[in-house]
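HUMAN: I'm a chemist; might I ask for a sequence paired with its structure tokens?

ASSISTANT:
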Amino acid sequence: MKLTPQERKVTDIITPLVEEQGLTLVQVKLSGTDTGYTLQIMAEDPKTGRLGIDDCTKLSHSISDILDVEDPINGHYNLEVSSPGIDRPLIFQNDYLRYVGFECKVELTMPTDTGQKRFRGFILGCEDNIVGLNTDTGDIEFDIESVAKAKLVLTDKLIEATKDGIPAITDAPEQEQQQVK
């Protein structure tokens, strides 16, 4: 997923702060208009895939303090700091690798040759930032850079797999770890 210049600037400013707190930055998303923006920051404990309320509060105050000084966003904005949740966004190659075999929804920035830009299917794998997805109409491949948004679908399988934290990339069943050709 491509970041806007303001999202990139915020990411660059807050990443060291997030990492100092032993967390991983998942997503920075700025939405809204010139009359008011919402800056959504998702972070997690890399061991559990969660962000507890105390960590969330501490991180929110730290981010607010540094953004007040750096002032990377023109105009008024509301800051939201949260955990990515079970049905988390898929941003990086490792996100797709970690959830091989799980169902997701993907929206591309541009339609494919078939004219379709929204897909729902099961992640086959990801290699060199090319994601493989098994959909009802067949397998497709797309570059991560062409993704407008992607997230996991909340299913019983996902709930079961994440009850003790995020699965390790090697935890996917062997037959589901196949890489895109």
User: Anything to note?
Assistant: Confidence is low (pLDDT under 50) at residues 171-181.
